[in-house]
Amino acid sequence: MNYENIVILTGAGISAESGLKTFRDNDGLWENHRVEDVATPEAFIRNPRLVYTFYNQRRAQLQMSDVKPNLAHLALAKLEAEHAGNVTIVTQNVDNLHEQAGSKQVLHMHGELLSARCTRSGKSEVWTNEIDNTTRCSCCNSPSSLRPDIVWFGEMPLYLDEISEAIANADLFISIGTSGTVYPAAGFVSEAKFHNVHTVELNLEPTGTRGQFDEGYYGPASAVVPHYIHDLLKESI
Ligand code: APR
Fold this sequence. Notes:
It is a single chain. By secondary structure, the protein is α/β, with parallel strands linked by helices. The protein has two domains: about 1-20 and about 70-110 and about 155-235, TPP-binding domain (Rossmann fold), CATH 3.40.50.1220; about 20-65 and about 110-150, SIR2/SIRT2 'Small Domain' (2-Layer Sandwich). Helices cover about 30% and strands about 20% of the residues. The chain is built from eight helices and nine strands. It has helices at about 35-40, 40-45, 50-60, 70-80, 95-100, 160-170, 190-195, 220-235; strands at about 5-10, 85-90, 105-110, 110-120, 125, 145-150, 170-175, 200-205, 215-220. The strands form two sheets. A six-stranded parallel sheet has the order 3-2-1-7-8-9, sandwiched between helices. A three-stranded antiparallel sheet has the order 5-4-6. The radius of gyration is 18 Å and the shape is globular. The N and C termini lie close together (about 10 Å). The model has no long low-confidence stretch (mean pLDDT about 95). The site of adenosine-5-diphosphoribose (APR) has 23 residues, from loops.
């Protein structure tokens, strides 16, 4: 079957084999921290130093030379390059491995590690260094105004209108490496079904939302994704 507009939702599982830990596969801890201690606006008010340090470490880790896109990221970039229609990646990941692999159309609905946001102006800027309470933003040049450009729990995800529009216009929706437990991303599959979009889950194992997908293929992303994309590209020739 040929598909024209493809929307791909990715989660932490696609980056696991690049050396970045997932959120829910480690006793509920993210790099040894409880999510509510580092990834909420309340945590930032309570203990900004801990939150700055946590994201400074994540940002530094992402820029280490051994953290590279794996075969799954590369397969999605190849799909975008070779597919005649549109390919939109909607990622919950804050890493930049899709971009490093060569993907162009990527919506970071939960923000980005290599970006910082001014809490006064709301403007984001590319950021590769550490942030602390003395760092100045380039928009108003005031100290203590920058925060990690991450959508924390309790905050509104980004690009929701664009994502809904892309899903409504899609004919194929693929979900890769996400547990389907965090909304609104967990609801995209039912949004896709509502618009009669064909839905496919690619994950290490079937998730709790497996029943909502038309098809599912299971195993490590670096094996399952290239295989699925290869077949998809072959079918569309
Ligand atoms: N290949 C494919 N899938 C994998 C792999 C792998 N190598 N390793 C793990 N997985 C799967 C797991 O089985 C799990 O279903 O990836 C999924 C990861 O799920 P989560 O850790 O819950 O990550 P994610 O779904 O991206 O979390 C959503 O929650 O904490 C917040 O904002 C954070 O964006 C994140 C959101």
